[in-house]
Give the backbone structure.
Amino acid sequence: MTIKHIDRKTKFRIFLVFFFLISLLATLYYTLASDYPGVDYYFHLRRFNVLIQALSDGQYPFYIDTTLIESYGYNVKSFYPDLILLPFAFIGIFTGALFAYNLMLFTATFLCGVFTYKLAERIYNSPFTAVISAILFTFCLYRMFDIYHRAALGEILSFTFVPIVFLGLYEILKGDYKKWYILTIGISLMIYTHLISSVLIFILILLFCVISYKSFLDNPKRLLFLILSGLISLPIVASYIIPMLEQISSNSFKFNSHVGELWRGQLAISALIKGLLGGIVFQNRMVIYGSGIGVLLFAPILLRFFVKEKSEKLYMTDIIVIIGIFLIFTTTYLFPWSSPYLQFFQFIQFPWRWLEFSSFSFAIAGGFYLSQIVTSQRNRIVTCTVVIILSFLSTINYINHFEREYTEGKVSPWEEEYLTEEPTIHNSYYIIGGEYLPAKVPSIFYIHDRGDSISVNNADSKISRFKREDTILKFTVNIAEADSLTLPLIYYKGYTALLNNKDLPITQSTHGLIQIPVNETGNVKVYYEGTIIQKVSFGISILAIFALCIYILIQRRKKPFKT
């Protein structure tokens, strides 16, 4: 039996086995991330460790890392969701954090290829196109850049769900619009993974909808199901979005001061051109040149000039490429990010975040263009083999260059002697820019110098028996008259303070710490209880997820949609 006579399901099973093995092999290389930690590695590893500990202690959901920043506490969860990390954190309870973390990278790599395969096969009805697209996207240079140099876990995981979003969008615009829930699932997973990438992909969804407006004119139901997919996403992501908005509305944070600096991350045209050769040629500054598209994504696009036969799929693919090229253009100095009309986009921090989606567009288009040039089964097998080999050579070349960059001190922002898993003042407690600190906190050095102490306004007030028990701060206060105390806790909405088991009002001090009034002598307990909104929104999300699962099960038992 020849490959030509193998049915599609069998081909997909072969792909699963094959891609499982190469994903496993790739992950063995990824484990070097613990030996050569990228910029955000310890930040995310800390998140992961704290999540494992919370699950072990039965304290999930939690919001405050109570031991970070010298036990002043840091709220990451309200701004950086952990839902996608949960399955691997459960595993980490039994295996340890490092194994579970690497298992998460393996799973993300494997599923990224699988989902890309399913998308490309659905659009082009070609297993060959699907295989090429899956390999090109999963092992693209920008993803390698995220894994190694940046160790940007949120963006790494978002790669996995990009194909799901576009599969759902394709079904609504061109296919079975009754599968609108695929888009809902994709959007929800993106939001629970990386909010910035979610906003960027939402912009692309709007762009594709404008381009495909005729689909809505021909069948208005498609627009209704598009709106439905978005509306159903809202309760699913409520447990993240609503508590985040609650915190933002209750205080001002450091990330507000980062607005207006997007232009600083723009690339020179020369850097962009060199980036197109990534995988073969790497420059001395990985952060600038290593984030390029790379020759393996760029070269297949050039095959478009040799595709002569016109078709609707070719037209659609050309549109995808044009969008990808435009996204690359937005990373350069030629694009006016400093314009006052583009201030909304300043939150994305770096314009080269668009490379995730330009890489995706080039991977999908490259697979299709190759399928139009390479038509015989034998040549397609050879082409797949060559693409796989070149992808691995490119990855190995990248890793070798990354190791050199690392050993030469061009990767880590911290001095080598301070680069340990333990967060200290010397490595900024691995909170990177401290974006989630209240704006009133002068700096982490203020907290370090202040120490683990309680400040009183009246000299006659005395503090004794001060201690921290698990997540609770306890002490005894003895006063002669009413006083106001400033505690060694960073202010976030959701804290509870009790004096002799009676609630105390909590305010924010002039330096962003928790401040409480005391009008009697007694025992004080302060802990993060959470807010009603956090608890209700968590329940809403759980119910919405179960409801969607039940709906999907019912729909799958019905007759399939016929295009």
Observations:
- The two ends are 31 Å apart (CA to CA).
- The CA atoms of residues 176 and 562 lie 7 Å apart.
- The chain has a mean pLDDT of 89.
- The longest strand covers residues 462-469.
